[in-house]
Amino acid sequence: MDFAQQLGRRIRRARTDRGMTQSELAHGARVGANYIPRLERGELVPSVEAAFRISRALGLSLDEMCGRTPARKEGPEVQDAIGRLEKTDAASLRRVADVIEALSLPTRKAARKTK
Predict the structure, then answer these.
(1) Are 42 and 100 in contact (CB under 8 A)?
(2) What whole-number distance in Å separates Cα of residue 17 and Cα of residue 39?
(3) Which of 46, 34, 59, 61 is CA-nearest to residue 8?
(4) pLDDT digit string, tens, across residues 40-99
(5) CATH class for domain 3-65?
(6) Which of 9, 31, 48, 103 might form a disulfide with 35, Cβ 3.0–4.6 angstroms?
(7) What is the DSSP letter of 74?
């Protein structure tokens, strides 16, 4: 299977996982109505600009869409939180880590009791 076919399959899978139609993806990526079906069949490779718009419409990075890293399975709330954390200073990140640690303590205690 060549790159165009692999890319087309990844785009189709990402689109269907998100419950999007080909038409919705085409509209969100600002490409023609026939572009997405041809892309998903592996008939063409998008330009860098079109690939960027498609990846944004799918909520993926270009790397994820091209199969370089595993696609995130998190919901939009988790992706939003990750985006915010990526922009946070080190001191705030330490406080967030402390809060997460505190929240996970009851779970760890319960896990120890069941062993």
Answers:
(1) no
(2) 17
(3) 46
(4) 999 999 999 999 999 999 998 888 888 876 545 667 887 788 888 888 888 888 888 888
(5) mainly alpha
(6) 31
(7) -
